[in-house]
Amino acid sequence: MSVGFMRSNCRFCSGIFTLILWLCIEVGPVWSAILWLLLWLYTMLCMINDCLVKSIILNEKTISYVDMFKKYEMPWEEIKLIGIGYYPIRGRSNLPWIYFSADGYFSPALIQKKVNNRFFMAHYRKEIEKTVRQYWKGDIAGINSVE
Question: Is 56-145 a CATH 2.30.29 domain?
Fold first, then answer.
């Protein structure tokens, strides 16, 4: 089963946008058109990655995070904590998240990263819980807090 979720690079994109806007003022119309084309291509690449490629894959051996640029795998035997909670990301905390930790703890600092080789985090959906329970025999922290 493949479970996809989105992540945006808002700060990075706004910085690039500001730089390109400044360069367009400085370099003239031809280079401005080239810069806008490059920005558009970059945006399309990010959208394709976020909407079509990026996913968390759960199978009997591992949990895998895959996108265009990286792949992390975490065997079920290494996972020490799975939990569900409401974490404020960009000011919104009304959506539940599920996380998988190989270190056995959850830290608010991990929220900013969302994915590394020891921690995965994705939007929670009931289907994910059903799939996780097929492979994980331990408790899921915070499961009673989900409506």
Answer: yes
